[in-house]
Predict the 3D structure of the following.
Amino acid sequence: MAPTAWTAADDEEAHHYRSHWELAWYRLRRNKAALLGAIIVLLLVVAAVFAPLLAPHDPNQPFDSGMTLDGSPTSPNGTFLLGADTLGRDLLSRILYGARVSLTIGVVANGLAMVIGVAVGLVGGYFKGWVGTAVMRLTDVMMAFPVLLLAIALVAVLKPSLWIVIGVIAFVYWTPIARIVHGQVLTIKEREFVEAALAVGAGQWRIVFRHVLPHLVPVIIVYTTLGIATNVLFEAALSFLGVGVQPPTPSWGAMISDGQNYYRSAPWLVLYPGLAIMLTVLGFSLLGDGLRDALDPAWRD
Amino acid sequence: MARLSMGVYIARRLLLAVGVIIGVSLITFILAYLVPADPARVYAGSNASAATVASIREQLGLNRPLPVQYLAYVGRALHGDFGTSYKLQTPVLSAIESRFPYTAALAGAGILVELLIGIPIGIISAARPRSWLDRGAMGFAMLGVSAPQFWLGLVLLYTFGYLWPIFPLGLAQSPSSIVLPAITVGLSGGVWYARVLRSAMLETLNADYVRTARAKGLGRLIVILRHALPNAITPIVTQLGLDMAYFLGGIVVVESVFGWPGVGQMAYQAIQNDDIPLIMGTVLFSAIIIVLINIFIDVLYAVLNPRVVHS
């Protein structure tokens, strides 16, 4: 693509952009809740990456000492810091390895959903005519589905595996971001710099990628972060219902599901994996809220 | 003139809704077709002979081309016939009807919990922003939206059903058995409303008319209740409608944790049983409720805010 002349408008925008990001970074650093969120996210990533080093035991190894004589799981003690599960496996090790599954699914599924949602929102918002209308009508149809039922049915049909779960979550969760991006594009394309680019003869795709998309970056950053929180919760619900990643892979939702019949005698089986989910969702939510406030205080809901 | 364009607006919304429902039915039908289990075999039972299965396939019209099957399905559905559940051997519509009162009761109770949590916490937080009470409430709100529903349900069961047995553990037997499921359904929405209300009210408190009311010597709490709250409540009404729509479509997770015999639990079992007519029926039913309530909200919004119609 031939480079076009660097205009005064571009110059001013570049200047504005830099200060905008600097201002956002400044606001983010001063937001204690956002920092707490960032620390939680960082710790989770460390737990997931270094699970083999941090876990005291093999997560899939049943221990004789993990069961009492009557066959119930051992309660938390020196060997099993958070207790053992119904098969005598170390709960702490399984929770640490579970972080890998939750974060992988949360991040990858959300990334896919963002790509689909941004593409649909851009096309629907920028291009008038039947293409734009068609993709937004498709979004309407998808939004009318009961999300969880649709996902359960899809996973059941396709047989659960890590990639199927990721694909299904992305498939049911791209719609909100498509709506948000669509709304943003409708206002962005009315702005003077788009008009100016059209006037100097820029093509449609060039305008979409060089002028509209960069203005969506703050929205994309915020909803990527918040979306991970939503997807982690959704994955947990799917594996709780038995249509997530299959055993023996440790998944927090499935661990709670396995332990729910023992919630009276062995409450730790439900309590700790649930706290892990809650902490993850909390971390990404705090960080996402902080990013939203930092990038555009006018968005505060 | 204004009345005419409102009529046009409503007609347009209805037309779009019909399109959405047709789209949903088409996607549901294609998905159902992709299910690897043979519906005739499911219907006949695992002991039936090949000849029986073949005659059932003929009888159910499963050997006809897919578009013909789809049109036949839609034709029957328009007359209220959504087929017969393979597993329950009852009409899909009557199966949904028998479960719907439970889901409706839980949905209503869940909405009530949302309001009972959201409004007081929102008011308390907005009345004393940045106080320890506000910080505590908002911290609680963050935890509330982060907790997975099924986990919250089990924690409530353990705490108030077992440790301090205030509420019954069993199914929908006594009126009080709805309390724990309702809290589970409504908590995350409730704390979310508290956050939205708080920020909406804090914004309204800076408006001129509120400053006037304050200048006249009204107390902060009175100003909040009389002026800030009614204005801040509009964004919540829309979301409440959406919540209601999603709850009525079946609260799958909470119903399965508490063994609550609603539509959501039935749909989940239908999926496990490859009971295709029942899966399609419940998904369509949920989608129709979601679409109808959305139209209702849009129209209500347009009536309250006529500028929408002209844009």
Notes: The CA atoms of residues 65 and 161 of chain A lie 31 Å apart.
